[in-house]
Amino acid sequence: MSKIKLLSFDLDDTLWHTAPTIARAEQAFYLHLQAAAPALTAKFSPKALREHRLQYLSANPGLEHHISQWRVDSLNQALIESGYGGQSRELAAAAFDVFYHARQNVQLFEHCAKVLAELSQDFLLISLTNGNADLSRLPISRHFHSHFRAEQVGAAKPAAPLFLEALRQAECLPHESIHIGDNTNDDIAGAKAVGMHAIQARLIEHAPEPHPLADLHFDDWRDLPRLIKQLNASPR
Ligand SMILES: [Mg+2]
């Protein structure tokens, strides 16, 4: 009988390599703004716009776990500063749509889709992300029971709320679950703090060394089912 019931998955850099997707989305976002709000792009280079966004967060720290809202609100502010006062909300919403759409264009790691399909036969799969990827737009979402984002619960990993939400949904105890993710603090330390098992994904170049708290780690999706089996067979 399987002791493990729930597998929760981080998304960015666990199911796909995030940097190229974000870079493309940032590019599409800026290109859109060049056409829609030329006075803004005359005032802000892509780098200056990024810095403006970071400054906006320093002034509005409450947006930290609401990254979509943060991007919209900070752009709105930059638009106002560029003379688009009357239309800033509309322009910001349209530009965000462009970014958001491009941000969903991810390329899964090799073997990921096949392994997820396989695992979903035996376990309940739930995704937990601090980012704004929308798993429901991807074909692999059919293998997942549910998806949770930090901005929905107002708290990002490593804080407990996302992990606890997954456990609640799966109606299981922490030791009956495994969290799989790449970030040693957010995913590994966070999951271990609530008593879940944790497997560290080391799939991108220069991935962090295996964390002492990680039960196991992998650098090839094909190895994951075997590691889960191993944890399933362990006494606790
Ligand atoms: Mg990640």
Automatic annotation (TrEMBL):
One of the GO BP terms on file: riboflavin biosynthetic process
Cofactor: Mg(2+)
Keyword set, alphabetical order: Hydrolase, Magnesium
The organism's place on the tree of life at top rank: Bacteria
GO molecular function, one term: hydrolase activity
Pfam families: Hydrolase (PF00702)
Protein name per its UniProtKB record: Putative hydrolase of the HAD superfamily
Species this chain originates from: Zhongshania antarctica
